[in-house]
Specification:
alpha+beta, 12 helices, five-stranded mixed sheet, single chain
Length: 540
């Protein structure tokens, strides 16, 4: 099967590459090892040469000391310090050389006999030469200086019967040979790494080319019938079939192709039926779009009407304020009561203007907030009581009778999950509408009771106002819409109150509806989900 053969060849290729990589890594490590040996040999050679040079400089310093008594002590100490440093570095390099178990092939390991002899000579030389103190007169200068010079020469050049000059020269010669051998070994290892890397790359490339060429030829050979079949289907020859042979991937692909051709023939017939259905659906959708477009045109007309209304609503009180102010400014010498009456009229008009602006701001804030209030467990009586207190003064001023009928047991609170501020706003809007559109001396009642299944609280707010026609009720909570009766009674309204109220109810998961009241007026029905007890709420 193609998949198995492809996996086998890929496995062989990966194994070959992994082997070549391991060999190259080993060769690179060997090259690095040889290079470190070469650097170590060169460093030791440099240290031997530096040690010989500093020893010669120290001999010159001592000769100056004997002849002039003016040799700098600091210069002597500097030479001794550098010689000590060179010996320490040679000691470290020798330990590394001993730790390198491989060493150079075909070469005897370096002994530490020259290094031990040089260390012994340095200790004796340092002890002897540190006794030299310039500026101290000698009892018998010529005799003493000759004796001291002869003694120091034996310390400089002879140590334990060995000639230090010959020993250093021998060490330098031996280290030069060692450095040369190490450099040659490093070059050989580097060249060997390059050769192996080139061979590995070339062999991998050759094997990859062969692998790709073979499989490309095999895949093209097996893909040709499939390509011919797809061209036949593209030309509409749905009866064309591929002679699928074999059990490999291409054989199964050919069988799948034949089944696909059979299904295409079957679906071709179904497409005709579906096309007819689709044309019908498109015609229906087109009709729906025409209807939606008509609705959009109506909305646009309402929007233009709204802007015309709001322009009128804002321009009228603004003009009235301006007129009152200009008339008052032209007056002079009148009684204070005239000015007070004018200012009261201006304040009244300004309050109307502020109310209109407040309604617009309320709609804007609700649109921005997305009507997602933070809900908590509250008693429905709290927002109802707060709303009733807010409209109490207005009701008394207009001689309305305002009452609350609670049809629940006295000990049972009206618990629900809601926002105290939003529900207070809801009931205030509905009660304010009832007061505004009821003639003086009207009756406004609030009734609260549980629904039949106990899962909801039902709040009914009834008034004896101007009411609405049956065909107007569905549009009562539509934004910016007002009935003809409402416009006639209160021209300054904007048609936003019930819209805001319905949005608040929906945000609490409730239902909001209106119906005409028998005998005149309107009933607002509000249903809100109940939370019957604290325990139930906690369990939820």
């Amino acid at each position: 099967m193609l998949k198995a053969r492809l996996g086998l060849w890929l496995g062989v290729l990966v194994a070959l590459v992994a082997t070549q990589f391991a060999v190259v890594v080993w060769l690179v490590n060997q090259s690095e090892l040889e290079r470190s040996r070469s650097l170590r040999a060169k460093d030791a050679l440099v240290q031997y040469i530096a040690l010989a040079a500093d020893k010669q400089r120290l001999k010159v310093w001592f000769a100056q000391y004997l002849l002039t008594d003016q040799a700098p002590v600091a210069l002597r100490d500097q030479y001794l310090q550098r010689m000590q440093t060179a010996l320490n570095e040679l000691e470290r390099l020798h330990r590394e050389e001993q730790a390198d178990a491989g060493g150079l092939a075909g070469e005897a390991p370096l002994t530490r006999q020259p290094l031990d002899a040089l260390q012994t000579n340095f200790r004796a030389l340092r002890a002897q030469i540190q006794q030299a103190q310039p500026h101290i007169p000698h009892p018998n200068p010529s005799t003493e200086r000759a004796s001291v010079w002869s003694e120091m020469l034996s310390v400089f050049d002879i140590s334990e019967g060995q000639d230090m000059r010959a020993l250093i020269a021998q060490a330098i010669t031996q280290q030069q040979a060692h450095s040369t051998a190490a450099e040659a070994a490093a070059q050989v290892a580097l060249q060997r790494s390059r050769n192996v890397a080139i061979y590995s790359i070339l062999s991998t490339i050759a094997l990859s080319i062969g692998f790709v060429s073979y499989f490309a030829w095999d895949i093209r050979r097996r893909m040709r019938p499939l390509l011919d079949g797809t061209l036949a289907l593209q030309a509409g020859q749905l009866e064309h079939r591929i002679g699928a042979t074999g059990r490999d991937e291409f054989g199964r692909l050919g069988q799948s192709f034949n089944r696909m051709a059979e299904e295409i023939q079957l679906h071709r017939h179904n497409e005709e039926t579906q096309r007819q259905r689709l044309e019908t659906a498109v015609a229906q959708r087109t009709a729906d779009l025409h209807q939606a477009n008509a609705q959009l045109l109506e909305i646009d007309r309402s929007r233009r009407q709204f802007f015309a209304n709001i322009s009128h609503e804002l321009r009228t009180p603004t003009t009235a304020i301006l007129g009152e102010a200009e008339i008052t400014l032209r007056r002079s010498g009148h009684a204070e009561s005239l000015y007070r009456d004018a200012l009261e009229r201006v304040a009244s008009i300004a309050r109307q203007l502020g109310a209109r602006i407040g309604e617009l701001m309320a709609v804007a804030r609700q649109s921005e907030a997305g009507l997602q209030p933070e809900l908590s467990l509250i008693d429905l009586a709290e927002p109802l009581r707060a709303a009733l207190e807010q409209v109490q003064a207005t009701a008394a001023q207009q001689e309305h009778q305002l009452q609350w009928l609670n049809h629940t047991p006295a000990a049972e609170p009206l618990m629900l999950r809601g926002s105290l501020d939003k529900l207070t706003q809801l009931f205030t809007i509905v009660l304010d509408n009832a007061l505004r559109y009821s003639p003086a001396g009207g009756q406004i009642s609030v009734e609260t009771q549980p629904a039949a299944d106990g899962a909801e609280w039902q709040i009914t707010i009834s008034d004896t106002g101007i009411g609405m026609d049956a065909q107007e009720l569905p549009r009562a909570s539509e934004r910016y819409w007002r009935s003809e009766r409402a416009r006639a009674m209160r021209p300054e309204g904007m048609g936003l109150g019930l819209t805001i109220a319905e949005d608040i109810v929906r945000a609490h998961g409730g239902q909001f509806s209106l119906k005409a009241r028998e005998g005149g007026g309107t009933q607002v029905l509000i249903r809100l989900p109940a939370a019957l007890s604290h325990s139930n709420n906690d369990n939820n």
